[in-house]
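Quiz preparation item.
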């Protein structure tokens, strides 16, 4: 099975698709001063970061929606009127009240913790209690809290709005702040900035986001190849090449092959790389089911101040989808099978 999956992914890899890369930076791309968050060793490192940030973030923008990375997408157009919802709702569902959104879908602390450091190594977060004390809800976050977001994976800055994050490209002087959930503010303390075009934020219409939503993009094919090939044969050069293509696009360093030199270690890296590369794209729920890790990761979520946000439970029956009620209505023989699944 794994060998077949790797071979199929290779066929797609030979079909002419490639990762979206922005080769030349414009004034807007360097408008935010990331020297607050990233320690740049030299100008070359700075340019690599900004190109990686622009490449990862702008692949989802309207102007680039037909790029060579897109394999299958849900297409959208400008709404034009409030009663003709032909655009997607990401602006409304992902952004917060200040930006005209509802904060309906927000990153969890566990997702934020999953982003690597800028050297491509796992990030070691503080305990929830220490983070809460550093954040000092209702007061001013201290330097230790802000240090959590320094020198991290480029995709963190392109994907997540965290307290004190800036986004001048969206609006001059914009700083993301969080004082608590409710009233269209995030319940977790974070909002997505990934997947919606800043042009969509200019509209007052709720579903007026004309950018397409990716269903399959080439980065997922590379990740699928890496996972299947590793499970079939263990680490080899082709796996590192596929993963490094993804990392290089966003300005991250190549994988340390000495540190990730076994099937088990590389599996762990691939799972996390998939989690952050595809964050917000609807893949995570299905991944945790097929990896059989749902019972350990579907747990109660907490906000930055360590207050419970949502109680989550997992039952084994969730590994199998129930039959739709319409199917049960048409075929009574399915009812016993449905019950055997636990539904």
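Solution:
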């Amino acid at each position: 099975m794994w060998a077949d999956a790797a071979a199929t992914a290779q066929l797609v890899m030979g079909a002419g698709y490639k990762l979206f890369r922005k080769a030349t930076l414009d004034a807007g791309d360097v408008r935010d001063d990331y020297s607050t968050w990233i320690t740049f060793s030299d100008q070359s490192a700075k340019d690599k970061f900004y190109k990686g940030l622009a490449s990862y973030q702008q692949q989802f923008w309207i102007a680039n929606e037909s790029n060579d990375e897109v394999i299958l997408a849900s297409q959208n157009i400008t709404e034009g009127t409030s009663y003709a919802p032909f655009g997607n709702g990401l602006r409304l569902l992902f952004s917060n009240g200040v930006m005209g959104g509802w904060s309906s879908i927000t990153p969890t602390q566990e997702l934020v913790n999953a982003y690597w450091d800028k050297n491509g190594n796992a990030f070691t977060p503080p305990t929830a209690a220490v983070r809460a004390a550093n954040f000092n809800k209702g007061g001013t976050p201290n330097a230790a809290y802000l240090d959590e977001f320094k020198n991290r994976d480029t995709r963190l800055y392109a994907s997540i709005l965290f307290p004190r994050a800036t986004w001048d490209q969206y609006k001059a002087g914009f700083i993301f702040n969080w004082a608590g959930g409710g009233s269209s503010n995030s319940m977790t303390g974070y909002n997505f900035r990934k997947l919606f075009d800043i042009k969509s934020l200019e509209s007052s219409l709720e579903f007026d986001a004309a950018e397409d939503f990716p269903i399959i993009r080439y980065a997922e094919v590379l990740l699928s190849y890496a996972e299947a090939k590793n499970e079939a044969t263990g680490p080899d050069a082709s796996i590192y090449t596929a993963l490094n293509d993804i990392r290089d696009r966003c300005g991250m360093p190549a994988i340390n092959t000495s540190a990730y030199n076994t099937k088990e270690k590389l599996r762990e890296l691939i799972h996390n790389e998939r989690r952050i590369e595809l964050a917000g794209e609807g893949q995570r729920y299905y991944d945790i089911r097929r990896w059989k890790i749902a019972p350990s990761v579907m747990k109660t979520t907490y906000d930055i101040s360590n207050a419970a946000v949502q109680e989550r439970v997992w039952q084994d029956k969730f590994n199998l989808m129930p039959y739709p009620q319409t199917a049960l209505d048409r075929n009574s023989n399915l009812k016993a099978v449905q019950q055997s699944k636990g539904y």
